[in-house]
Structure formats: structure tokens, C-alpha cells
Amino acid sequence: MISDMKRFLFAAATLLAVISCAGKAPKYANRAEAIAAQIHDPASKYVVVACHRGDWRNYPENSIPAIESVIRMEADIVEIDIHMTSDSVLVLCHDDNVRRTTNFSRVFKGVQGKSAKISELTLAEIKSLSLKRAHGVTVDTLRMPTLREALLCTKDRICVNIDKGYDYYDAVLALTEELGVTDQILIKSSKPLAEVQEHEAAYEHNMMYMPIVNIQQEKGKALFDSYLEQGVVPLAYEVCWGNNDTPDFAEACKKILDQGSKVWVNTIWGSLCGGDGNDDDAAFQCGDPGKVYQQYMDAGVSMIQTDRPALLIGWLKKHGRHKL
After folding, report:
1. Domain 45-189: assigned CATH number
2. pTM above 0.85?
3. Is there a shared CATH topology between the 45-189 domain and the 190-324 domain?
4. Residue 70 has what pLDDT?
5. Which are the contacts of 236, defined by CB distance < 8 A and separation ≥ 6?
6. From the first residue on, what is the mean pLDDT of each consecutive set of 10 residues in the chain (324 residues)?
7. Quick one: three-class SS letters along the chain?
8. CA separation for the pair 272, 67 (Å, rounded)
9. Can you tell me the distance from the alpha carbon of 56 to that of 133, in angstroms, rounded to the nearest whole number?
10. CATH architecture classification, 190-324
């Protein structure tokens, strides 16, 4: 049995610990802020997981439930796509039209000449459509969200990569500033460095930005070289390459890490990460995710966009690379 003195000392120590913890302010105000800190830290060993269009395997892509699902998985970034309606509202959709992702053909059946392009539809018309799951089944209760609705959902909970968004930069930034989430948003493009610098100089406060470089295409190599030659260090580079039979990827990673930046890799399709056998499906099918993902850890990659977030996060946690 524990003596009375030991009980007293234990109780006192516990009380002091509680008082100490209660008086200590948390390092970050919310989870999104903690994730953003990892993105900004080139020395961090934490691997940031970005989910491509949310959990599209179980919910309609770019939908609120798809976003909520990856938040529950403890993903770090949800990648979404945007387009603007005819009445100037940004909505979430990968395609520039709604035929694949909604029941447009049924709702507007018989309406001659009706365009399915988002730019030619009003928000009210888009909200009249139901979203489809990946296998084409319509979910009558789900509608295409606006960017505002999506950002209200993600605020302080997860960072957001707004893909196809740079052409709407001014409108997106105005919205993120209004909602107070600018620091939680990542936007990227293959625009020339000078154009990006001029654009960002117009604002005192900008979203996180990342250049996309295909290191095996002339345009991508030229963009990559422009950053290196001018000594501009972005938070990260999205590195794309289609052929692993050359040292291009390893060499690019070394240059990026030596520069003090981070490497983002897309494992969603082999064409973006060195060919078949290097993507999420290969990691899933082989039964040992490490046979695919370990090569990226070895190369110094610390940001991965995936179509299999649960698989990747589980493997990273097992190896101590995904704990905030």
C-alpha cells in the first residue's frame, strides 16, 4: 500500500502539473495553424498529407462530406477545384462543366441549347443539381458547394489547396481575408516567377504559394531554374515527372532541399510521379505501402498529395512521420 506521505506527495505533484498545464498557453490556436507551421518549416520531418478532391472514393468529389471525411482521417490539406458561375460565384468543381459530376442531363433534359458550362450557369441553376459519387450514382441530398461554404467548413480545422484557383486569385483572396483564413490557404500555378511576384506585391497579405514544375519538360525546367538562379525560395515546389529511369527527380530534390524549400509530390497518378508502380494504387495493391512511399521519404519529400489518404496516413503514423 502507498503510505499517506506518498499519497500526499503524489497528489501535490498532480495538482502542480494540472496548474502548470492550465496556465500554459497552447502553441497553436487551432489545428490548421499547426499544419501551416509545418508547411513553413523546411526542417520539419512531419509529412503533410494533401487529399485530392477530398474523400472522393466514398463521397462526391469536392463536396462537403468529402471534406469532412478527410478531416476525420487527420489529413492536413484538402485539395479542391474552383470555377466561377455566370453570376460571379466561385463553386467547387474540377471540370469546367457539370455533366460528369451532377445530374445535369436529367434536370435539363429537353431544354434545347442549355449549356452545362459553369461559366454559363447561375448559382441557382447549379444548386438545383444533385452531385454524383465517383461511380455515377446521384446523391439527391447533396449540392455543389460554393467556395465560401467550403472555407467555412474547413476554417481552423484543415488547410486548403485551391487548385485551378490562380486565375481567380483576387476574388479568392478577398474571400479568405473576409473569413480570416488566408494563412490556411495554399494556391499554386506554373505562372512565370515575375508574374507571381508582381501579383503578390499588390497585396500586403497573401495566401501560401507554391510553383508547379515538371522537371522533365522544357517549360517546367525553365521555371524551376528561374527560382534557383534568382535565389527565390518558395515554401515548396510541386515536382512532377513521368520517367524514373533518369536521375532528374533525385537531383531536383537535392537542389530544393539545399535551397531550404520543401518538396511536394503527387502520388495520385503514375504520370506525375515517375510512372506506374510509384503511385497510390501501387501502394494499395502491393500490400506494403512502404514499397512505394519509402522512396519519397528517402528523397526528402515532406508533402504528398494522395488519392488514398487513410492508407498513407496510417503508414506515416506507423513510422513516426505524421504526428503534430
Report:
1. 3.20.20.190
2. yes
3. yes
4. 98
5. 39, 210, 261, 262, 263, 264, 302, 303
6. 40 43 73 98 97 96 98 98 98 98 95 96 98 90 97 98 95 98 98 96 98 98 98 98 96 98 98 97 97 98 98 98 96
7. CCCHHHHHHHHHHHHHHHHHHHHCCCCCCCHHHHHHHHHHCCCCCCCEEEEECCCCCCCCCCCHHHHHHHHHCCCCEEEEEEEECCCCCEEECCCCECCCCECHHHHCCCCCCCCCEHHHCCHHHHHCCCEECCCCCEECCCCCCEHHHHHHHHCCCCEEEEECCHHHHHHHHHHHHHHCCHHHEEEEECCCHHHHHHHHHCCCCCCEEEEEEECCCHHHHHHHHHHHHHCCCCCEEEEEECCCCCCHHHHHHHHHHHHCCEEEEECCCHHHECCCCCCHHHHHHHCCCHHHHHHHHHCCCCEEEECCHHHHHHHHHHCCCCCC
8. 23
9. 7
10. Alpha-Beta Barrel (3.20)
Q: Are 41 and 281 in contact (CB under 8 A)?
A: no
Residue type, 82: I
- The pLDDT of residue 23 is 56
Q: Please state the separation of Cα 304 from the chain's center in Å.
A: 9
A 10 A CB-CB count for 245 gives: 7
- Write out the three cell numbers for 230: 534568382
**Domain extents in the chain:** 45-189, 190-324
- For residue 47 the three cell numbers come to 509529412
Distance CA 83, CA 167 (A): 10
